[in-house]
Amino acid sequence: MPTTLITGASSGLGAEMARQLAARGQDLALCARRTERLEGLREEILAANPGRRVELRALDVLDDAAVFEVFHAFRADFGTIDRVVINAGLGKGAPLGTGRYDANRQTAMTNFVAALAQTEAAMEVFRAQKRGHLVMISSVTAMRGMRKTITTYAATKAGVASLAEGVRHEMLSEPDLDIRVSTIYPGYIRSEMNERVKHTPFMVDTEVGVRAMVEAIEKEKANALVPTWPWVPLGKAIRHLPLPLVRKLL
Length: 250
Ligand SMILES: NC(=O)c1ccc[n+]([C@@H]2O[C@H](COP(=O)([O-])OP(=O)(O)OC[C@H]3O[C@@H](n4cnc5c(N)ncnc54)[C@H](OP(=O)(O)O)[C@@H]3O)[C@@H](O)[C@H]2O)c1
What we know:
globular; 7 strands; seven-stranded parallel sheet; alpha/beta; 250 residues; 50% helix; binds NADP nicotinamide-adenine-dinucleotide phosphate
Protein backbone atom coordinates (compact mmCIF):
# COMPACT_ATOMS: atom_id res chain seq x y z
CA MET A 1 0.00 0.00 0.00
CA PRO A 2 1.30 3.51 -0.72
CA THR A 3 2.29 5.43 2.42
CA THR A 4 1.67 9.15 2.92
CA LEU A 5 3.39 11.21 5.63
CA ILE A 6 1.37 14.27 6.72
CA THR A 7 2.65 17.01 9.04
CA GLY A 8 0.13 19.03 11.06
CA ALA A 9 -2.24 16.04 10.99
CA SER A 10 -3.87 16.75 14.38
CA SER A 11 -6.62 19.05 13.06
CA GLY A 12 -8.25 20.76 10.10
CA LEU A 13 -7.02 19.95 6.62
CA GLY A 14 -4.25 17.60 7.75
CA ALA A 15 -6.61 15.37 9.78
CA GLU A 16 -9.19 15.32 6.98
CA MET A 17 -6.55 14.49 4.34
CA ALA A 18 -5.56 11.55 6.56
CA ARG A 19 -9.19 10.33 6.74
CA GLN A 20 -9.73 10.62 2.99
CA LEU A 21 -6.38 9.10 1.95
CA ALA A 22 -6.95 6.15 4.30
CA ALA A 23 -10.38 5.63 2.70
CA ARG A 24 -8.56 5.49 -0.66
CA GLY A 25 -6.38 2.65 0.64
CA GLN A 26 -3.26 4.44 1.84
CA ASP A 27 -1.18 3.82 4.95
CA LEU A 28 -0.31 6.89 6.99
CA ALA A 29 2.58 8.43 8.92
CA LEU A 30 1.05 11.27 10.96
CA CYS A 31 2.72 13.89 13.13
CA ALA A 32 1.93 17.07 15.06
CA ARG A 33 2.49 18.39 18.61
CA ARG A 34 -0.95 17.35 19.99
CA THR A 35 -0.47 13.59 20.13
CA GLU A 36 -3.75 12.91 21.95
CA ARG A 37 -5.52 14.31 18.88
CA LEU A 38 -3.43 12.05 16.64
CA GLU A 39 -4.34 9.03 18.77
CA GLY A 40 -8.06 9.82 18.49
CA LEU A 41 -7.67 10.23 14.73
CA ARG A 42 -5.84 6.90 14.41
CA GLU A 43 -8.64 5.11 16.30
CA GLU A 44 -11.25 6.70 14.05
CA ILE A 45 -9.33 5.83 10.84
CA LEU A 46 -8.67 2.23 11.87
CA ALA A 47 -12.32 1.73 12.87
CA ALA A 48 -13.43 2.93 9.41
CA ASN A 49 -10.58 1.18 7.49
CA PRO A 50 -9.50 -1.91 9.46
CA GLY A 51 -6.75 -2.98 7.04
CA ARG A 52 -4.80 0.29 7.16
CA ARG A 53 -1.55 0.98 9.02
CA VAL A 54 -1.25 4.33 10.83
CA GLU A 55 1.96 5.31 12.66
CA LEU A 56 2.15 8.43 14.85
CA ARG A 57 4.96 10.64 16.13
CA ALA A 58 5.05 13.85 18.14
CA LEU A 59 6.69 16.62 16.14
CA ASP A 60 7.17 20.33 16.63
CA VAL A 61 8.28 21.41 13.14
CA LEU A 62 10.19 24.33 14.69
CA ASP A 63 12.64 21.77 16.11
CA ASP A 64 14.90 21.24 13.07
CA ALA A 65 16.67 18.15 14.39
CA ALA A 66 13.34 16.51 15.30
CA VAL A 67 11.99 17.05 11.76
CA PHE A 68 14.87 15.01 10.29
CA GLU A 69 14.67 12.36 13.05
CA VAL A 70 10.92 11.88 12.68
CA PHE A 71 10.92 11.70 8.85
CA HIS A 72 13.75 9.13 8.85
CA ALA A 73 12.08 7.15 11.67
CA PHE A 74 8.84 6.96 9.66
CA ARG A 75 10.83 5.71 6.68
CA ALA A 76 12.36 3.03 8.89
CA ASP A 77 8.85 2.03 10.07
CA PHE A 78 7.44 1.59 6.57
CA GLY A 79 10.52 0.90 4.44
CA THR A 80 9.29 3.45 1.89
CA ILE A 81 7.48 6.77 2.20
CA ASP A 82 5.69 7.37 -1.11
CA ARG A 83 4.43 10.86 -0.42
CA VAL A 84 5.11 13.69 2.04
CA VAL A 85 2.49 16.42 2.57
CA ILE A 86 4.03 19.56 4.10
CA ASN A 87 0.92 20.89 5.77
CA ALA A 88 1.76 22.13 9.32
CA GLY A 89 1.02 25.84 9.41
CA LEU A 90 0.07 28.86 11.45
CA GLY A 91 -2.19 31.81 10.63
CA LYS A 92 -1.04 34.40 13.20
CA GLY A 93 -0.08 37.90 12.16
CA ALA A 94 -0.57 41.66 12.20
CA PRO A 95 0.14 44.59 9.86
CA LEU A 96 3.89 45.26 9.72
CA GLY A 97 5.12 47.98 12.08
CA THR A 98 2.25 47.63 14.55
CA GLY A 99 4.23 45.98 17.36
CA ARG A 100 3.53 42.31 16.62
CA TYR A 101 6.86 41.21 15.16
CA ASP A 102 6.59 38.22 17.50
CA ALA A 103 3.43 36.94 15.79
CA ASN A 104 4.72 37.62 12.27
CA ARG A 105 8.05 35.95 13.08
CA GLN A 106 6.32 32.87 14.51
CA THR A 107 4.27 32.54 11.33
CA ALA A 108 7.36 33.01 9.15
CA MET A 109 9.34 30.40 11.12
CA THR A 110 6.51 27.84 11.12
CA ASN A 111 5.27 28.29 7.57
CA PHE A 112 8.54 28.91 5.76
CA VAL A 113 11.69 27.97 7.72
CA ALA A 114 10.08 24.82 9.15
CA ALA A 115 8.70 23.98 5.68
CA LEU A 116 12.27 24.23 4.39
CA ALA A 117 13.40 21.73 7.06
CA GLN A 118 10.53 19.41 6.11
CA THR A 119 11.40 19.71 2.41
CA GLU A 120 15.06 18.93 3.12
CA ALA A 121 14.10 15.89 5.22
CA ALA A 122 11.56 14.67 2.64
CA MET A 123 14.07 15.07 -0.19
CA GLU A 124 16.71 13.10 1.77
CA VAL A 125 14.21 10.25 2.04
CA PHE A 126 13.14 10.53 -1.62
CA ARG A 127 16.71 10.75 -2.94
CA ALA A 128 17.62 7.61 -0.97
CA GLN A 129 14.54 5.81 -2.37
CA LYS A 130 15.04 7.39 -5.83
CA ARG A 131 11.36 8.26 -5.85
CA GLY A 132 8.58 10.06 -4.05
CA HIS A 133 5.87 12.71 -4.28
CA LEU A 134 6.40 16.01 -2.47
CA VAL A 135 3.21 17.96 -1.74
CA MET A 136 3.43 21.54 -0.53
CA ILE A 137 0.36 23.14 1.03
CA SER A 138 0.49 26.78 0.00
CA SER A 139 -2.60 29.06 -0.18
CA VAL A 140 -4.52 31.28 -2.62
CA THR A 141 -3.06 34.16 -0.62
CA ALA A 142 0.27 33.29 -2.29
CA MET A 143 -1.05 34.82 -5.53
CA ARG A 144 -0.32 38.37 -4.38
CA GLY A 145 1.07 40.48 -1.53
CA MET A 146 -1.74 40.69 1.04
CA ARG A 147 -2.74 43.27 3.65
CA LYS A 148 -3.77 43.39 7.31
CA THR A 149 -3.15 40.27 9.40
CA ILE A 150 -2.11 38.08 6.46
CA THR A 151 0.82 40.03 5.00
CA THR A 152 3.45 37.72 6.48
CA TYR A 153 1.29 34.61 6.09
CA ALA A 154 0.82 35.29 2.36
CA ALA A 155 4.55 35.93 1.93
CA THR A 156 5.36 32.55 3.53
CA LYS A 157 2.88 30.80 1.24
CA ALA A 158 4.42 32.44 -1.83
CA GLY A 159 7.82 31.38 -0.44
CA VAL A 160 6.90 27.72 -0.05
CA ALA A 161 5.34 27.65 -3.54
CA SER A 162 8.61 28.96 -4.95
CA LEU A 163 10.57 26.41 -2.91
CA ALA A 164 8.45 23.58 -4.33
CA GLU A 165 8.86 24.88 -7.88
CA GLY A 166 12.60 25.09 -7.30
CA VAL A 167 12.66 21.40 -6.36
CA ARG A 168 10.59 20.56 -9.47
CA HIS A 169 13.04 22.59 -11.56
CA GLU A 170 16.01 20.80 -9.96
CA MET A 171 14.46 17.40 -10.72
CA LEU A 172 14.50 18.20 -14.46
CA SER A 173 18.26 17.71 -14.35
CA GLU A 174 18.05 14.50 -12.28
CA PRO A 175 16.54 11.97 -14.72
CA ASP A 176 17.46 9.00 -12.49
CA LEU A 177 15.16 10.27 -9.74
CA ASP A 178 11.38 9.80 -10.02
CA ILE A 179 10.45 12.66 -7.70
CA ARG A 180 7.26 14.60 -8.48
CA VAL A 181 6.24 17.86 -6.83
CA SER A 182 2.73 19.26 -6.31
CA THR A 183 1.81 22.66 -4.90
CA ILE A 184 -1.74 22.96 -3.61
CA TYR A 185 -3.25 26.42 -3.20
CA PRO A 186 -6.37 25.97 -1.04
CA GLY A 187 -9.03 28.68 -0.97
CA TYR A 188 -11.01 29.18 2.24
CA ILE A 189 -11.70 25.83 3.89
CA ARG A 190 -13.18 25.62 7.39
CA SER A 191 -10.59 24.54 10.01
CA GLU A 192 -9.31 25.57 13.45
CA MET A 193 -7.21 28.25 11.76
CA ASN A 194 -10.29 30.19 10.65
CA GLU A 195 -12.95 28.99 13.13
CA ARG A 196 -13.45 32.55 14.47
CA VAL A 197 -13.60 34.12 10.99
CA LYS A 198 -17.28 34.80 10.33
CA HIS A 199 -18.28 36.25 6.97
CA THR A 200 -15.65 34.88 4.62
CA PRO A 201 -16.98 34.57 1.06
CA PHE A 202 -16.61 31.19 -0.65
CA MET A 203 -15.75 29.30 2.58
CA VAL A 204 -16.45 25.57 2.18
CA ASP A 205 -16.63 22.96 4.88
CA THR A 206 -13.58 20.84 5.67
CA GLU A 207 -14.74 17.63 4.01
CA VAL A 208 -15.68 19.32 0.72
CA GLY A 209 -12.53 21.45 0.55
CA VAL A 210 -10.22 18.57 1.39
CA ARG A 211 -11.90 16.33 -1.18
CA ALA A 212 -10.77 18.83 -3.84
CA MET A 213 -7.27 18.88 -2.33
CA VAL A 214 -7.03 15.08 -2.30
CA GLU A 215 -8.22 14.83 -5.93
CA ALA A 216 -5.46 17.21 -7.01
CA ILE A 217 -2.85 15.41 -4.87
CA GLU A 218 -3.79 11.97 -6.20
CA LYS A 219 -3.55 13.29 -9.78
CA GLU A 220 -0.09 14.64 -8.85
CA LYS A 221 -0.96 18.02 -10.38
CA ALA A 222 2.01 20.39 -10.46
CA ASN A 223 -0.13 23.33 -9.30
CA ALA A 224 -3.75 23.29 -8.17
CA LEU A 225 -6.05 25.99 -6.83
CA VAL A 226 -8.81 24.21 -4.89
CA PRO A 227 -11.78 24.03 -4.92
CA THR A 228 -11.62 24.81 -8.65
CA TRP A 229 -14.68 27.06 -8.42
CA PRO A 230 -14.31 29.92 -7.60
CA TRP A 231 -10.57 29.78 -6.94
CA VAL A 232 -9.17 29.12 -10.43
CA PRO A 233 -10.71 32.27 -11.97
CA LEU A 234 -10.42 34.24 -8.72
CA GLY A 235 -6.77 33.23 -8.35
CA LYS A 236 -6.04 34.53 -11.87
CA ALA A 237 -7.82 37.79 -11.07
CA ILE A 238 -5.95 38.20 -7.79
CA ARG A 239 -2.62 37.61 -9.53
CA HIS A 240 -3.19 40.09 -12.37
CA LEU A 241 -5.60 42.84 -11.26
CA PRO A 242 -4.33 46.17 -9.88
CA LEU A 243 -4.08 46.15 -6.06
CA PRO A 244 -7.09 48.48 -5.47
CA LEU A 245 -9.26 45.83 -7.19
CA VAL A 246 -7.58 42.92 -5.38
CA ARG A 247 -8.45 44.76 -2.15
CA LYS A 248 -12.14 44.39 -3.02
CA LEU A 249 -11.80 40.63 -3.59
CA LEU A 250 -9.84 39.52 -0.50
N1 LIG B 1 -8.05 26.40 6.17
C1 LIG B 1 -7.82 27.17 5.11
O1 LIG B 1 -8.71 27.88 4.61
C2 LIG B 1 -6.46 27.16 4.46
C3 LIG B 1 -6.31 27.82 3.26
C4 LIG B 1 -5.06 27.81 2.64
C5 LIG B 1 -4.00 27.13 3.20
N2 LIG B 1 -4.18 26.50 4.40
C6 LIG B 1 -3.02 25.80 4.97
O2 LIG B 1 -3.39 24.49 5.33
C7 LIG B 1 -2.51 24.01 6.35
C8 LIG B 1 -3.34 23.39 7.47
O3 LIG B 1 -4.07 24.42 8.13
P1 LIG B 1 -5.54 24.23 8.72
O4 LIG B 1 -6.42 25.19 8.02
O5 LIG B 1 -5.90 22.80 8.72
O6 LIG B 1 -5.34 24.80 10.20
P2 LIG B 1 -5.41 24.09 11.63
O7 LIG B 1 -6.66 23.33 11.80
O8 LIG B 1 -5.07 25.17 12.59
O9 LIG B 1 -4.20 23.03 11.56
C9 LIG B 1 -2.86 23.41 11.63
C10 LIG B 1 -2.03 22.16 11.86
O10 LIG B 1 -0.65 22.56 11.86
C11 LIG B 1 -0.03 22.00 13.00
N3 LIG B 1 1.05 22.85 13.49
C12 LIG B 1 1.03 24.19 13.71
N4 LIG B 1 2.22 24.58 14.24
C13 LIG B 1 2.99 23.45 14.34
C14 LIG B 1 4.26 23.18 14.84
N5 LIG B 1 5.06 24.15 15.34
N6 LIG B 1 4.73 21.91 14.78
C15 LIG B 1 3.96 20.93 14.30
N7 LIG B 1 2.72 21.10 13.81
C16 LIG B 1 2.24 22.36 13.86
C17 LIG B 1 -1.12 21.86 14.05
O11 LIG B 1 -0.81 20.76 14.92
P3 LIG B 1 -0.39 20.89 16.47
O12 LIG B 1 -0.92 22.19 16.99
O13 LIG B 1 -1.03 19.70 17.11
O14 LIG B 1 1.10 20.80 16.45
C18 LIG B 1 -2.33 21.50 13.19
O15 LIG B 1 -2.41 20.10 13.01
C19 LIG B 1 -1.68 25.22 6.79
O16 LIG B 1 -0.43 25.18 6.17
C20 LIG B 1 -2.49 26.40 6.27
O17 LIG B 1 -1.69 27.54 6.05
C21 LIG B 1 -5.37 26.50 5.05
